[in-house]
Amino acid sequence: MAKMMVPLGPQHPALEEPESFNLLLDGERIAAATVALGYNHRGMEKACESRTYIQDIYLLERICGICSHSHSSSYVQAVETIAGIEIPKRASYLRTLIGELERVHSHLLWLGVAGHEIGFQTLFMSVWKDRELVMDILERLTGNRINYGMNTIGGVRRDIDLSESDEVLKALDLLEERTTYYIKVCTEEQSIIARLSGVGKLSKEEALRLGAVGPVLRASGVRHDVRRDDPYDAYPDLDFDVITDDHADVLGRTIVRVLEIMQSYKICRQVIRSMPEGPISVKVPTKIPVGEAFSRYEAPRGEDIHYVRSNGTDHPERVKVRAPTLANLASITNMIEGGYLADVPIVIAAIDPCFSCTDRMIRVQDSRSGQEKRFDWAGLRQYSIDWYKKQGVDLTQAKASRKD
Amino acid sequence: MALSLFKILIFPGFFFLSTLALVFEYLDRKLSARMQNRVGPPWYQPTADFIKLISKETVIPSEADHGIFKAIPIFALASTASAFLYIPIWGQQSLFPFDCDLLVVLYFLTVPTITFFLAGWFSSSLYAEIGSIRAMTQLFAYEVPMYMALLGPALLAGTWSVSGITAFYHIHPLLSLLNLPGFFVAIIAAQGKLERAPFDIPDAETEIVGGTFTEYSGRYLALFRMAIDCEMVVLAALISAIFFPALLPANPVLGMLAFLVKTVVVVFLLALIKTSFARFRIDQMITFCWKTLAPLSLLQILIDLIAKGVILS
């Protein structure tokens, strides 16, 4: 049979978000694969520049629906560094608690999605049912199931009381029992192992060369975790293990994630037991002094990086976000090539991709000529002015009459 | 003539079969939902789905062969409905029994898979093409173990007629215990034939979207869905007729009840398999079928041959 090109995406049942993979198939095997980014560019970084620091927290929290707390934490850390603010101890503990609960819910969500990708609906259904437990705690603590709105510059916005922490501890016991069962399922169930083991191999050297992060890197046997290497919030005081695995395949990534959930329970318990008393935030002026800062945060999907530059006003001059998926995407073609078509969805899912968080650019391609067009900011502005001029609207005039 | 037509079209023929197919689809969905901690659909859901699909717009790709595209679902449904006529329901006799009807039933049950292949092939869509190749590859894996598993009981009974096999095991109920390996193989191969998890490889949605049926919509898709549901009933009836024919009350009403209980047990087993495994990859599926199922079905034939020589002579 001749080789054929199969598109996987931008719209495909295996993908939750738009992203294009072109697979050159030789029978059932993948001969070559290409990845094309840029289907969901939302212009968030640019939008940050026209909002105040406080408004940006809520905007950046919405970069990702799953690791929302990671993005807002990473951003406020950067702003706090520029402003030279030390946040109260209790606030940093609360941030850690929400961050770890978020990791639990993200990893459980991933396990369910992985079950779906390998056609194991039962795993998907039961994991997502148990995930509701952690969603309920998050709702109780913050008021929201996702996009918690906990962070603010200088601390957190909500305190937790004794009855709430009791509820968290109770739910954690239940979750731990269920997670122990899922660890057993993932490490002992033969049909899962048959589908996951040896699939999407990424050696330690390749992982380091391609700059993989998070569970993908740890599953290739590299001990790298920002919580340990560059501790923030309450992590310096806490006792936890960095989970690594030597399988270097999808099975390894699964094991790393499920075991990390157990570590998160351990961290949550420690945080609640040793939560210091005191205020939950400090007052911060709306205008941030001139400076720049770079902040790292271990999101559930890997290392999340935010860079903020201020110019002395209440608006940041530049915000740059590097979502963990971007770092892991580079290794995807390596993992897919040579494998089976049937394994492509699970290999892609195994980096826990969040394509919409990653996109920083849009590619316009003429479907007839195949010519590509890229705009920079000035070019896009000029294009829109010209386009409206053709319609009979002169925007340069309109801009002059407004005062902004 | 009129009575025969009534039997073929209404009861226990086509109409009865389709009703039963919808009921079994409901049972299958409800059972697997309960096994997965879900609520599951209400009893009328399969019927509602069928009516909805029938009333929807039909889109046929302009590159597809229109005549074949439209005719194939009818072949699928017709062949499964015909297969049902040769399987005993409430008694020991099927509607129109004749010698060697087991082979005819098996052939009729292979036709739907061939139609799935043709449907995918003539849709001229990438995903459908891959799906149809997978359907064909899978056919070669499960078909042989399935034939051999059904051949064993027939060898022991000394007849190629489904009605004859049922009658034989009705007289010697204990002998059907010898056919347990064959039953195991037949249930698993049935799962492959019906293209259900873990063998839903030809229409694995996360890999190849809708698989063979990617381009099908509206009433043609409804016909295919109906054909697959009917196939499930026919397979459940065939398996229960050959592997547990022991419980056959003389009273037709009780016989009907016994038939329903036996087939529901088969559906329950099918749902259990569906919910307890991850989908296999096509190479794993073929290895499993040839290395595990085929030897098991050979063992079944061996057992039956020895039993025939030792016990019956």
What this model shows, in words?
The complex is a heterodimer of chains A (404) and B (313). Chain A has 17 helices and ten strands. With 404 residues, chain A is α+β, with helices and mostly antiparallel strands. In chain A, the strands form four sheets. Chain A has a three-stranded antiparallel sheet with strand order 1-2-3. In chain A, a hairpin with a 2-residue loop joins strand 2 (20-26) and strand 3 (29-36). In chain A, helix 3 packs antiparallel against helix 4 and helix 5 (121-142) runs antiparallel to helix 6. Chain A starts with a strand and ends with a helix. The mean pLDDT of chain A is 87. By secondary structure, chain B is an all-alpha fold. Chain B has one domain (2-312). Chain B contains twelve helices and no strands.
Taking pLDDT < 50 over at least 5 consecutive residues as the criterion, the unreliable ranges of chain B are none
How would the global form of chain B be characterised? globular
How does CATH name the architecture of chain A? Answer: Orthogonal Bundle
As a percent range, the share of helical residues of chain A equals 40-55%
CATH superfamily of chain A: Cytochrome-c3 Hydrogenase, chain B
The best one-word shape of chain A is: flat
Q: What is the CATH C level class of chain A, in words?
A: Mainly Alpha
Number of helices of chain B: 12
